[in-house]
Design goal:
Layout: H1 2-14, H2 26-42, E1 46-51, E2 58-62, E3 71-77, E4 97-99, E5 102-104, H3 112-125, E6 131-137, H4 145-153, E7 162-166, E8 177-182, E9 184-193, E10 199-200, H5 211-221, H6 243-251, H7 256-264, H8 277-282, E11 286-294, E12 304-305, E13 308-317, H9 323-337, E14 343-352, E15 355-356, H10 362-375, E16 380-383, H11 391-394, E17 401-404, E18 419-421, H12 422-442
Parallel strand pairs: 3-6, 3-7, 7-17, 8-16
Antiparallel strand pairs: 1-2, 2-6, 4-5, 5-18, 8-15, 9-13, 9-14, 10-12, 11-13
Helix pairs in contact: 1-3, 3-12, 10-12
Bound molecules: ligand BES and manganese (II) ion (2 copies).
Residues 77, 110-111, 140, 167 line the site of one manganese (II) ion.
């Protein structure tokens, strides 16, 4: 059956462990790029090329010429996040498995399954009535360095009438969305050094500084218990959502209680209580600690005073914050909060400005119609909590960037048991097919 073939093909893509942030997976990233390139050739693309890097290339392709028709640039990413903790997956992350109508694998929803949808929708068209361009990158999950360099050198690659990005989800089952903002990202390592080397905690404990203690105190001071980030100036340029926007959010099928119980699955929600949960997720900056290393973390026990400790942290940015300013603010706050007997340094790993998109161009209506035709409901305008670093650069040529997706909010992106519902996959192929056809026939 057709669906069997499609599932087999997608599974082949998902089996490749293309984790961009881990160097031991460089060859796998390359294999995933090869998979994408082969698909583009099968779609009769010419000029299929690898741009910018041998290890994490951007896959470029140009579809068959359709004189007079608009040009659609399709963006996506073939890289995925690390699959750890492995023990928490019901089936292994790179052995795609269907259970109760859902396909489980790292990348199923973010973003391989969605790239697959976009490509198979082209195949379903036969001869798509639009001129197609592809930028499918392999470093989205690590800040898109390669693609930024490529676009810096060759901005004409983004020249198009419309840019389509499918790397997000519906706001709720049955509720497709188009996104008006993406948060930006400031990823950093904060390192505290307190002595020349580690010390015996019996000989020196009580009199010598401890790097972990100082790091923890510093981190704890960066956010007050009520959720406010304690970095001077950080909120100065944050643009509050308009009343109209807030009113739209109230009408979305989003219940804070359900969100806590079914999605977060914790005992309570945290953060600034005076803002709604959606406002906290979509319109306010965040500060998160991703991991702390240093000292002794092996099995058993070692009595040591660590001389160095490092935390991986990130801030999410919202319009109209800028990466440059936030980096300066974070570095300044760390310097101020560290005691004078400790060296605190900040190293920035990657970052992105937030994106803000006006969804007024007629092509947004075509997507709305495509969803309406296939799933019975058009798109609602929402904001995204996540980031896609390259989105502002994709829109530089002036083309409207359409941010949408066919995932569901409970797909568990970046976490164990990531999945994609098969009904979303099949609907998605039909939605994008419809969208290509509407765009081709109505013009951009
Ligand atoms: N697809 C996500 C972005 C996303 C997630 C948008 C959820 C909207 C809702 C993307 O692959 C992603 O995870 N991006 C990273 C970027 C970062 C590493 C620079 C992110 O948001 O953490
Ligand atoms: Mn993604
Ligand atoms: Mn992701």
């Amino acid at each position: 059956m057709e669906t069997d073939r499609l599932l087999r093909e997608l599974s082949n893509f998902l089996r490749i462990p293309s984790v961009s942030t881990l160097p031991e997976h460089n060859a796998d990233c390359r294999a995933a790029a090869d998979w994408v390139a082969a698909e583009l050739r099968r779609l009769d693309c010419r000029d299929v090329q690898f741009l910018g890097s041998e290890m994490h290339p951007v896959v470029w392709g140009v579809g068959p010429d359709v004189p007079g028709a608009p040009t659609l640039l399709i963006y996506g990413h073939y890289d995925v996040q690390p699959p750890d903790p492995l023990g928490e997956w019901t089936s292994p992350p790179f052995e795609p498995t269907v259970r109760r109508g859902r396909l489980y694998a790292r990348g199923a929803a973010d973003d391989k399954g969605q790239v697959f949808c976009l490509l198979k929708a082209i195949e379903a068209c036969g001869r798509p009535p639009v001129n197609l361009r592809f930028l499918i990158e392999g470093e989205e999950e690590y800040g898109s360095t390669v693609l930024f360099e490529v676009l810096e050198r060759e901005p004409e690659r983004t020249r198009a009438d419309v840019v389509l990005v499918a790397d997000m989800s519906y706001v709720a089952p049955g509720w497709p969305a188009v996104y008006t903002t993406l948060r930006g990202m400031c990823y950093a390592e904060i390192t505290v050094r307190t002595a020349k080397s580690d010390l015996h905690s019996g000989e020196y404990g009580g009199a010598a500084p401890n790097a972990h203690e100082e790091l923890c105190r510093l981190l704890a001071r960066l956010k007050t218990p009520d959720g406010r980030i304690h970095i001077p100036g950080l909120y100065d340029t944050v643009k509050p959502p308009s009343r109209a926007e807030r009113a739209t959010w109230k009408r979305l099928p989003f219940k804070e209680k359900e969100f806590l119980k079914e999605r977060v699955q914790a005992k309570a929600l945290t953060g600034m209580k005076k803002y709604s949960v959606l406002e906290r997720l979509w319109a306010l900056p965040t500060f998160e600690i991703h991991g702390i290393t240093g000292g002794f973390t092996g099995d058993g026990a070692k009595t040591v005073i660590p001389a160095e400790a490092t935390a991986k942290v990130s801030l999410r940015l919202v319009p109209a914050q800028t990466l440059k300013t936030v980096q300066r603010q974070l570095a300044g706050a760390v310097k101020r909060l560290a005691p004078n007997y400790a060296d605190a340094t900040v190293r920035f790993l990657h970052g992105a400005d937030p994106a803000e998109i006006e969804v007024t161009h007629p092509s947004y209506q075509l997507l709305d119609r495509a969803f309406k035709a296939v799933v019975g409901r058009g798109t609602v305008a929402a904001r995204a909590g996540g980031s896609i670093p390259v989105v502002p650069a994709l829109g530089k040529s002036g083309a409207p960037v359409i941010l949408t997706g066919i995932g569901l909010p409970d797909d568990r992106l970046h976490a164990p048991d990531e999945k994609l519902d098969l009904t979303q996959l099949w609907d998605g192929i039909r939605v994008f097919r419809r969208f290509y056809e509407l765009l081709g026939h109505k013009g951009a």
